[in-house]
Amino acid sequence: NAGVMQNPRHLVRRRGQEARLRCSPMKGHSHVYWYRQLPEEGLKFMVYLQKENIIDESGMPKERFSAEFPKEGPSILRIQQVVRGDSAAYFCASSRYGAVGTEAFFGQGTRLTVV
Amino acid sequence: AQSVTQLGSHVSVSEGALVLLRCNYSSSVPPYLFWYVQYPNQGLQLLLKYTTGATLVKGINGFEAEFKKSETSFHLTKPSAHMSDAAEYFCAVNTGFQKLVFGTGTRLLVSP
Questions:
Q1: pLDDT value at position B96?
Q2: B97 vs A contacts (CB less than 8 Å)
Q3: Mutate to test the interface with B, among A10, A26, A43 (most CBs of B within 10 A)
Q4: pLDDT tens digits, residue range B51-69?
Q5: In B, which residues are within 8 Å of A54 by CB distance?
Q6: Is A92 exposed, middle or buried (0-12, 13-18, 19+ CB in 10 A)?
């Protein structure tokens, strides 16, 4: 049973380009969460999705960032017109249920570097 | 709003010594509390969690944590540190919403 798969593991983008980060949840998991970890900081919640629905996007920057979790395929976190401040590790987590206290399993992250 | 404070961004211990990583939380409702470990360039792995019931929770790799409501604390301990325990540890709280709120992390250094 494969864990949460994120790709790419490392991504380098020039300022102004688009970054697409992909996350395949664990088998049987329909709840996906994205977190961002800035250098020397803890993880900050960005967005919570279920299949085809955004449940909570209170942590997403208002501009340039979007997320989706289509019926088929991985969840995608998209960052348009990247800036240096977007450089961070982006982690995806998935859970089988959405109930509070349910364990979320984390992927290995995508480390985005904006040059 | 809920929050987590981890005292000490770095903790150094000798191999075989007691490990104590501190976590205090703020919550207006009964919290669910978690400890995660992160090895370099890896994702987070769940060590243990408290939801309800017994306040002393045992996790993987010999770690345990005790939920103390009166002190709003959930400190992580291990009786005897091993070199392989060197990593970053994050405390997190989930209080009725689907998102985890993380502390800023504590880096554990283990010397021979």
A1: 67
A2: 56, 100
A3: A43
A4: 888 899 999 999 999 999 9
A5: none
A6: buried
Confidence bin at B42 (pLDDT 50/70/90): confident
Amino acid A76: pLDDT: 98
DSSP designation for B90 = E
Write phi, then psi, for B15 (nearest 5 degrees): -60, 130
- Please indicate whether residue A53 or residue B96 has the higher confidence score (pLDDT): A53
Please enumerate residues of A whose Cβ is less than 8 A from a Cβ of B. Answer: 4, 6, 31, 33, 35, 40-45, 48, 55-56, 58-59, 91, 93, 98, 100-101, 103-109, 111
The CA–CA distances, whole Å, from B34 to A7, A102, B14, B57, B102 equal 26, 11, 25, 10, 9
Give the per-residue pLDDT at B25: 94
Distance of CA B10 to the CA centre of its chain: 13
